Amino acid sequence: MRTKMIGGNLIAVLLVGVVSYFVVSSQVESAFLEEVDSRIAGDVQLFDQLWRLAGRELVEQTVAQAREDDTRDVFSALDEATQRERAYERATAVLDWLGRRNRNRAGAAEIALITDDRGVVIARSQDRNRMHGDDLTRVLSSLRGVLDTGEPAIDVWRYEEGQTKYLQVAIAPIREPNGAIRGALVAGYDMSNGMASRLGGMLGLDVAFVQEGAIGGSSLEGATRDALQSALFEGQAAATQAALADEGTASDAFALGLGDDQYIGMLGPLSYSPSAQVGYVVLGNRTRQRAKASPVNMILIMTALGIVAVVIFGFLLGTSFIRPIEQMEEGVLAVINGRTDLRLDIESAELGGLAYRINQLLNVFTGTPEEDEDGRVSSPPEAWAGADAMNSRPEEPAASSPPSSGQGEEDDPELAAKLAAEPEDAYYARIFREYVAAKEAAGENVSNITEDRFIQRLQANEKSLLKKHGCKMVRFQVQARGAQVNLRPVIIR
Question: Which of 105, 173, 308, 414 is the most buried (most CB within 10 A)?
Answer without folding.
Answer: 173
